[in-house]
Design brief:
alpha/beta, 144 residues, 7 strands, 3-stranded mixed β-sheet, 25% helix, 24% strand, 4-stranded mixed β-sheet
Length: 144
């Protein structure tokens, strides 16, 4: 039996580079180096056939511990709620007012990057507080 050693999370989107750069800013990720022989990703993209230009982009954890994120252009727009989403863990270990303050501060930072706050959910005795957000193309994620 084979053992999985890495996981990549793939996003369908309209503008792969725009969404990838948003997630770089959210997570502190970086754009990987371009393929050998290309000075940058723009040069690589320009070498592709026109129908493939701008069709994909990626970002990765600079420490190599988190999953690589891959963004691929698809023709259809987002029409329903995500079946899978990312939880951005900014309140780990915090409770009550301290947790809400950390979540609200991160939400405010992400709104300046183009995110939208959808719903602020306060602790209910079973679940701790979190904030439901959307990225620059409407993909849901949670600040938790």
């Amino acid at each position: 039996m084979s053992v999985v050693r890495q996981v990549q999370v793939t996003f369908d989107c309209a503008e792969p580079e725009r969404v990838a750069r948003f997630w770089c800013a959210v997570l502190g990720y970086v754009v990987p180096p371009p393929p050998p022989g290309f000075a940058d990703w723009a040069a690589f993209d320009a070498a592709l056939p026109p129908e493939h230009q701008g069709s994909a982009f990626a970002c990765q954890d600079p420490n190599g511990t988190g999953p690589r994120l891959f963004f691929q252009r698809v023709p259809e727009g987002k029409v329903v709620k995500n079946r899978v989403h990312l939880d951005v863990r900014v309140g780990t270990g915090l409770v009550g007012a301290d947790r809400l303050a950390a979540l609200d501060a991160e939400s405010a930072r992400l709104v300046t990057l183009g995110a939208t706050q959808v719903r602020r959910m306060t602790a209910d005795g079973i679940n701790e507080s979190c904030i439901v957000m959307q990225d620059v193309e409407g993909n849901e994620f949670c600040l938790d």
